[in-house]
Amino acid sequence: MRNWLFLLVLAAAVAQSPPPQPPADRGLVLRFNVDLVQVDVVVTDSEDRRVPDLKAEDFEVRQDGNAQKITHFSYSASSISAQDGSTSPAQPGRGLLTRSEVRRTFVLMLDDAAIDFGDFRHTQEALLRFVDEDMQNGDIAAVVRTSGGAGAAQVFNFDRSALRRTIDRMVWRPPFSENQLIPPLRSALTAAIRAMADFPGRKSIILISPGIAPRLGAFSSPPSSWFEEREIADLANRSSVTIETIDVRGLPTLMESAATASGSPVSIRGLSSDRSIFNPNYSTQSMARYIASQDVLNFLAVMTAGRFSHNNNDIYAQVKAAADDAEGYYLLGWYPGADAFTQKPHQMVDYHHIQVRVRSRKGLTVRTRDGFFAQPDSQSLARKSPAEQMGDALFSPFRTGDIDVRLTASLVYDAASGAYIDSLLHILPHGLTFRDVADRADCKALDLDVLTTAMQLDPSGQSQGTFEGQRPAIQLCGKILQSVLAEGFVVTVRDRILVPGAYQMRVAVRNLLPGDRPAGKRPEKLVPRGPAPEHIPIGSANQVIEVPDLKKVEFTLSGITLWGAGGSGKRPPPGTNYRRLIPGDPAVRQFRAGETVNYALGVLRDPKKPAEGVEIQIKVAHEGKDIFASDPRTLQTGETLEGWYKLDGTLEPGQYLLGVQAKNPSAKTAPIEQWIDFEIVK
Question: Which of the listed residues 63, 221, 280, 317 has the most CB atoms within 10 Å of its CB?
Fold first, then answer.
């Protein structure tokens, strides 16, 4: 697979507004060094209220069972509430937050690769209510979906209205089957933690998940051997991040059945009996599997001083409680000992367990970090070059909001060359930096660095290939300039895929600075002239796409293309191309009620296999329900199906799906489906 870097020069003028940025210094509250270990400790009473009046002598700290002398002690309340008591809801359109104004920082992470529509919809409603009722001045939040997606705006923001739009635009997609996709939860958590590391204070990831199936290799072994999960927890602890987990499936039916006639609760790897279930619809094996699917969520929460919320149908209340958990904590520090960070030759890094309790009062609950690996914190806080920042944006689950980039990726197959992913990048003008053109008052120019890669969603999470670039000189003036200024422009990119599998197509876009060079074959060695800036405007997007092995499957479908009146379903030519938006552009996928949606797709099959007809049915869905289903029709291999669907004039604005169901009528294999989202606007 080859990953392409493309550089554009185009013209347009727009006022640039600075994006929200993390504070310049890291503001760490936790430390794991040879001279000091310092952790946060939450103490609550029997009614789950914070206990803020304890002293150092009230605590007992043990490291690997050995008592420690507390040398550093303080209590930290939320910054703004501690200063002025402000708890008013966040106001849209406020200016940028300073470091002293940051109150809470959290990521709302939805593990949605295998979530049911009902759970997805309930979560969406809960998050909208949380943003409306509980976001406060000084809060910074991001919304992340582990499945990615073209419509998933994943950006840290303090503007409540912007966060609400992000959540409201989330679109449910049918769950990936077990043999289609391994949910990229590990990589999403790791990237989210690293993205939060530079924010001040204690941060939270609120992970909402339908459980982690124990079929995933590392998750099926006892917790004591979960080294990867301990690494994630250790990274969270060193970044002052707490992982709060919520099982979105809520309360299961609890009753005894013939399968559990003994009356004994199912016990999986030492889990407490309150996590056991009795359900007449479950076999003993299914019950064990259900309980085991909660293990990772519980493990991550316990390791990072968070809480695992389960058996509760009120998702909103659980999200609110998880966000409020950052409100008040003690900082306890001690000298870890001369040998705590001494690495023994030819052995794995030691892991030190931490135990904290309050010895002066009874009835209090204490939560803190489980422990730390015997590796001191890195002292390197060097600023990153633009090329390094581009790499961070490209491989991050967040969709940065500095430059608005919207991605539409689809699969194409060439009989001679194999599989490709064609990407349409709709780049809006906001956030771009423009320059004047000599002797042309009606023209503007812009240097852009556009980087793409197709990341395999396997446990290794590695992308393959090299980076290459080209730089077409494009200059726009007059009416074309005004068109780009108002609507943006489209870049088409083609990436060759050599290995079948599930991919996340990723793209990052930035302005090229004066004297800067684009990322190339070895972007880590490209250093800009002059000092590296603390932050450069970058836009990014990602989308999950499946590339099947045509030698192993009977057939598959090409990507679906949607366009409106005046648009075209014609595939872009290979390579990188720039163009202005056209009416009904397939890169936008926005329609009004009563308009006609045109669609096109094709059937792909290994050319060495005999051609057979495939039965195709078109569906349109909204809120998890089909609102249209066409009559089936037969399509031959290599043939392109083009059609249209007229939207009902009474349809409400919102997110919709157009799907294709395909099956071989002469075979007993299950049909395959493919979906693409579009929006109805006013």
Answer: 63
Report strand pairing: 556-557 vs 476-477: unpaired
The pair of structure tokens assigned to 428 is 């809006």
The Cα 134–Cα 565 span in angstroms is 42
User: Could you give the C-alpha distances from 427 to 95, 486, 567, in angstroms and in order?
Assistant: 25, 11, 18
Tell me how far apart the alpha carbons of residues 613 and 487 are, in angstroms, rounded to a whole number.
41
Q: Residue 557 and residue 673: Cα distance in Å, rounded?
A: 8
Question: Using CA atoms, how far apart are residues 400 and 149, in angstroms rounded to an integer?
Answer: 14
- Per-residue pLDDT tens for 347-406? 667 889 999 999 989 999 999 999 998 888 864 445 677 777 887 777 665 666 688 888
Instruction: Choose from 70-84, 219-233, 290-304, 309-323 the range with maximum mean pLDDT.
Output: 309-323
CA–CA gap between residue 161 and residue 90 (Å, rounded): 9
Q: Are strands 70-77 and 328-334 parallel, antiparallel or unpaired?
A: antiparallel
Give pLDDT tens digits for 548-591: 888 888 888 888 899 998 888 777 666 667 788 888 899 999 99
User: Residue 129 CA to chain centroid, in angstroms?
Assistant: 20
What is the mean pLDDT of the segment spanning 115-134?
93
Rounded alpha-carbon distances, angstroms, from residue 475 to 10, 436, 440, 508, 580: 5, 11, 11, 22, 12
Tokens of 199: 């924010």
- What mean pLDDT comes out for the span 478-503? 86
Burial 372-394 (b: 16+ CB within 10 A, else e): bbbebeeeeeeeebbbbbbbbbb
Contact (CB, 8 A) for 277 and 266: yes
Q: Is the pLDDT at 523 greater than 60, yes or no?
A: no
**Residues, the chain, total?**
682
The conformation of residue 564, written as its DSSP 8-state character, comes to -
Beta-sheet strands, E only, within 59-103: 59-63, 66-68, 70-77
Handedness of CA 46, 50, 55, 60 (dihedral sign): positive
3-state helix, strand, coil in the chain (%, to 5): 20, 35, 45
Q: How far apart are CA 59 and CA 458, in angstroms?
A: 44
pLDDT in tens, 619-661: 999 888 899 999 998 888 777 888 999 999 999 998 899 999 9
Report residue 382 as tokens: 């060097």
Angle at 323 between CA 321 and CA 329, to 5 degrees: 95
- Tokens 């430390």, residue? 31
Cα→Cα distances 27→24, 205, 573, Å: 9, 18, 49
> Phi/psi at 303 (nearest 5 deg)?
-70, -25
Per the CB < 8 A criterion, the answer to whether 628 and 643 are in contact is no
pLDDT given at position 569: 75
Beta bridge partners of 117: none
* Token pair belonging to 383: 């600023």
**Distance (Å, whole) CA 459 – CA 236:** 20
3-state SS, one letter per residue, for 160-175:
HHHHHHHHHCCCCCCC
Using the Cα atoms of residue 20, residue 25, residue 29 and residue 33 in order, give the sign of their dihedral: positive
The 10 Å Cβ neighbour count of residue 149 is: 21
Question: Which residue from 546, 521, 550 is spatially nearest to 417, judged by alpha carbons?
Answer: 550
* Token pair recorded at residue 340: 């705590």
Neighbours of 221 (CB within 10 A): 12
Output the pLDDT for position 95. 41
Token couple for 666? 């002469």
Contact 627, 618 (CB under 8 A): no
What percent of the chain is predicted at pLDDT more than 90? Answer: 27
Query: 422: helix, coil or strand?
Result: strand
Intra-chain end-to-end CA distance of the chain, in Å: 41
